Amino acid sequence: MLDQRTIEIIKSTVPVLQVHGTTITTTFYGMLFENHPELLNIFNHANQRQGKQQTALSNAVLAAAVNIDQLSNILPVVKQIAEKHRALGVLPEHYPIVGETLLAAIQQVLGDAATPEIIDAWGEAYGVIADAFISVEVEKYREAAEASGGWAGFRNFVVNQKVKESEFITSFYLSPQDGGAISSYLPGQYITLRVKPEGEKYTHIRHYSLSTAPGQPYYRITVKREDEADNKPAGVVSTYLHKSVDVGTVLEVSAPAGEFTLDQSIDIPVVLISGGVGLTPLVSMLETLASEQPERKVTYIHAAINGKLHALKGLVEDLVQSQSQLTTYVCYESPNEGDTYDKPGYIDLPWLQKIADPNADFYFCGPTPFMKAIYKALLEWKVPEERIHFEFFGPAGSLTE
């Protein structure tokens, strides 16, 4: 435990972190990869280039400082990050490297303002926080390895089907190369792929939501090809999967993980809202609800640019035909001639209020601007926070900025 003086010093740095947090974390990652380039085999390079990881770490450090006297307040965030760390292969021996580099970055950015007292206090605080992460992650590694069909680290899977779902989205069906059983999962969770495309110096690791209900002898992921656009480089892994991976390709996969999961302990209505490829975890939830809670009222709302870019549409339509409690709606931003849809443009609160139950459990996923709009609408509708659930693809961000 930290003494009161250390807590006071950490809390005194909150205003500084609010101003310089992202600069500190940007400096941190630069130092980290310069001194330990092998860690580039773990970190998402695209998130680094786009500044997403730096912002996410800055927010995490700030939250730790604010709650340093009540670290239990950030336990949900610790668990969420620990899920991703386990899936990526982050190990206890990585934490001292990170701690040493973070303190060096604080000193470099703050200069003389980073007094020995402040650095010592943050050193102590980091040790406590690191221990919390390590203990949670050790347990998650154990759970993954000891689960029925589970395994530790990465396991080889073979692509046995590759199905084009829309112009830019393709599903990959993955079966274990060893022919053994596989871990089950909760609807909404993801698996993690580790690949090394030709010409790449380092391995690349990505999380992909499982897009079908659990219980199959395979995993299915549904991936959007991220092409170069608006000065944003093409996605290394998504491009590799679409263009270079075929039936028979072997991929390295870590066991299912994730905190964005369907609550099946209740039977209140459910509203699922997806944007673009954000439908992947929600389709898993939808299939699960249809098979395991067929009497539960479900409303599924999907937004896409147009019908040409609408993936898994036939699957959802088939579920509607078989489930009287399931209602679906489609919103197309720029519909093509001949498209069948319920609303042009964007999902908005007036439309939501016509088609959804305000007393439902709400789950949504999609591009960040889409999620910000949905989150704002639900808050305006006075939906309680405890009935609002969402998932970021990539580092956690904010829906209120």
From TrEMBL:
Source organism (scientific name): Paenibacillus crassostreae
Membrane-spanning ranges: none
EC number: 1.14.12.17
Active site: 95 (charge relay system), 137 (charge relay system)
Catalyzed reactions: 2 nitric oxide + NADPH + 2 O2 = 2 nitrate + NADP(+) + H(+); 2 nitric oxide + NADH + 2 O2 = 2 nitrate + NAD(+) + H(+)
Chain's role: Is involved in NO detoxification in an aerobic process, termed nitric oxide dioxygenase (NOD) reaction that utilizes O(2) and NAD(P)H to convert NO to nitrate, which protects the bacterium from various noxious nitrogen compounds. Therefore, plays a central role in the inducible response to nitrosative stress.
This protein's name: Flavohemoprotein
This protein's domain notes: Consists of two distinct domains; an N-terminal heme-containing oxygen-binding domain and a C-terminal reductase domain with binding sites for FAD and NAD(P)H.
Similarity-based family: In the C-terminal section; belongs to the flavoprotein pyridine nucleotide cytochrome reductase family.
Domain of life: Bacteria
Cofactors demanded by this protein: heme b; FAD
Residues with site note (Influences the redox potential of the prosthetic heme and FAD groups): 84, 391
Recorded name of the encoding gene: hmp
